[in-house]
Amino acid sequence: MIESAAALSLAVALVSGALLLRARKQLCSARATCTAFETVPLEWFRWRADQAVIGKSGDARSYSEFLTKLLAADAARLEKARQRLHSHGTAFSATFATRGATAYAVHGRRIASGDDILWLVDATAPLALQRARQEAADLREMLDAI
Predict the structure, then answer these.
(1) Cys staple from 55: which of 2, 45, 46, 98, with CB 3.0 to 4.6 Å?
(2) pTM over 0.70
(3) Are 85 and 108 in contact (CB under 8 A)?
(4) What is the pLDDT of residues 119-135, one digit of tens each?
(5) Nearest to 55 by CA among 7, 118, 108
């Protein structure tokens, strides 16, 4: 009886050790993935289904502060899109200009957990390039007219 209890204890210890090693490998992998995501130059805001804010990226200001940074029309347009996301799950992608010379590409999505998330990417350079191309085209058109 004692031998079988000892054998069973040894088997449990070996299985537990193997499971512990496996869990440690998974944890290391998850940490590596998180570290990689921290290098992505994104800001984000996340809400639960009841619209309680449950997170934001580490260096992001609050959502209301972000809205005050936008042009008034763009802030209203973003808030309307966010409300549609919360109420109907309608995903969106749009570019919004700030009061300064910057712009943000904002992507709103509902994730698998049912939470809503807004991803923000600095879109200043692509927007400036688009404006410069438009100005060049307008100048060409003006010169052709002269």
Answers:
(1) 46
(2) no
(3) yes
(4) 998 888 776 677 778 88
(5) 118
**pLDDT tens per residue, range 5-52:** 778 888 888 888 888 888 888 887 767 665 555 555 578 899 988 777
94 CA to centre of own chain = 14
How is residue 86 written in tokens? 């919360």
The number of beta carbons lying within 10 Å of the beta carbon of residue 84 is 14
- Token pair, residue 112, equals 């698998």
Report the amino acid identity of residue 12: V
Helix (H) or strand (E) holding 55: strand 53-56
Tens digits of per-residue pLDDT, 89-120? 999 999 998 888 788 999 999 998 899 999 99
